[in-house]
């Protein structure tokens, strides 16, 4: 029997190996909670879980956008810088917009700040999508370039400094920005509720709409998808736009939690987002993955990182452990998808790959 063959429970067709392999993110999360709960009396508590979940919300929002891109066979290395840029845009708007010719300073309300910030994220994603879909720039190169451009613009806007005191003032009518980071509904942080809402919308988009089927088909076999009538270029642009919007929302939540916005926020967060997608079982080659797995992957990384902090592990060892988890996840992905039959892309023109 080969090393990749599965173990079956005696007397039944239950494939234990497959269950463990496909549910690895869930089982890893349970193991992390059990281990750290035994090592620290402070880990297993509702208050701590809610605090950790608010940290996970940032990575989770980035991971949702990253999943959409990876499902098409692409990659978005610019999400961390987009988060930083959008946070700076929000901070600048909260500080007031000076119109020198008119001699006035405008203080837009928070809802306007949120919309304008999301528009900036969408524009970064649109630029990525156009470069990749129409100019055939490799996704790695295009998004790497936007990574530097977005970060550079954020640094230019702030001169390397940080916008503080983003709570606004009642007399200016721009209060409420800190509501995203500190307020709670039924004791659940707003950031966690935003993550849940975005995850549900993305899941419906992927599983209940034609666009979702197009995304999976594009990642399975782009040429076959084009021949079957899938608007591959439009799909490619849209997934990058959605990724940019998710990064903008993450930037708003993070800036609100910190009550400040700095140009270096979100550095290396793109790698964490990719890790969450991979740990959640998505294939980097495209066509395979789902929101449920990606959310579990984000919680695995977040709960692992916070658990290591709680028990006092050095930050250097935290990096080592996180890297080891990512490598193991990629290895398990290779085992899971390598053992299957023909590449699903060969049937992409007629049906979408499994979303399980």
Topology:
Layout: H1 16-22, H2 24-39, H3 46-71, H4 79-95, E1 97-99, E2 104-106, H5 110-133, H6 139-158, E3 163-164, H7 179-182, E4 184-185, E5 188-189, H8 190-208, H9 210-220, H10 222-227, H11 232-258, E6 260-261, H12 269-279, H13 291-310, H14 315-338
Antiparallel strand pairs: 1-2, 3-6, 4-5
Helix pairs in contact: 2-13, 3-8, 3-11, 3-12, 3-13, 4-5, 4-6, 4-11, 5-6, 5-11, 8-9, 9-11, 12-13, 12-14
Describe the model.
By secondary structure, the protein is mainly α. The protein has 14 helices and 6 strands. The protein has a two-stranded antiparallel sheet. It has a two-stranded antiparallel sheet with strand order 3-6. The radius of gyration is 21 Å and the shape is globular.
* Secondary-structure-derived class: mainly alpha
What sort of overall outline do the alpha carbons produce when their principal axes are compared?
globular
Total DSSP E strands: 6
The biggest sheet amounts to: 2 strands, antiparallel
How many whole angstroms does the radius of gyration measure? 21 Å
Low-confidence stretches: 1-12, 341-356
Give the overall average pLDDT. Answer: 89
Strand content: under 5%
> How do the SSEs run, as a string of H and E?
HHHHEEHHEHEEHHHHEHHH
* Count of helical stretches: 14
Q: How much helicity do the residues have?
A: 55-70%
Give the termini separation. 26 Å
Main sheet: strand order: 1-2
